[in-house]
AraC family transcriptional regulator
Amino acid sequence: MFNKLLHEPYDIVLEEKDSWENTRHPQTSFQLVYVREGKGHHHINDNQYDYCPGKLFLVAPEDRYHCDITEHTAFTIIRFTQLFITQLKDDAERLELCDWIKKTDYIFNNYHAKAGCIFRDAADGAMAQALLSGIAREHQQHGKGYQLIIRQSISILLNLIARNLLMSENPDVQENSGQFSILRMISYLQEHVYQPEMLRMPALAAHFNMSVHYLGEYFKKHTGESIQDYIIGYKLKLVDIRLCYSNMRVREIAQELGFTDESYLSRLFKKYRGITPGIYRKMNRKQETPH
């Protein structure tokens, strides 16, 4: 069972298994699942990946996952709690959380999230293993200052993950192909979703060295939707997450995601979801349940 850490934005569990009892159904939080030892197959929704020591997998709230364990396996699982999502921005001692939630939104909503182990750079993978080993040790020993050490280690780990997601592409996709360029564009839009000035068409055209007209046509040709429709859809997905997993007010969500005001967000939300944010929250609010 996960420890409920009242003053930290995460839960950590260290577990060892010879068999996996049943499929874990959609959870109420994001998870990093790290394999410390053992071998088997990691199943997430309809995808299967082999695992061995050092593999790190990402699990989003709506995912179903389980493992076929072929060799006794030890896991380190970091679950990001509602506090991670909510964050008290006025607390000067926790200002780093403001950056954390932005990294989390990008990491777990990125198109790479179902691509198995995410580390492509061997040096980054080795650093991540060292960080995760340190996190497990500090969690077990509770030495002086362990909470700060764990929090800072997770922050570094998230930066490594984000960097690898930006760097890594399917090796079969060549840099001069349309698919490669679209993946880069999607990464860029998601990464800068909190910076509306960087998502304006002139700024995007300059960044990708295209004309505004050609950029719009190019993106729609390869995705089937306009850049602005994609940005709105992605932002609304982030709104969904906050309504389901945090206590943020609609006004606070609107301000954070760059909507004009609460009224505009509510109208837009109702247009695309068919109901108001308040009703959506009541219908979909997730309650924390222990494993």
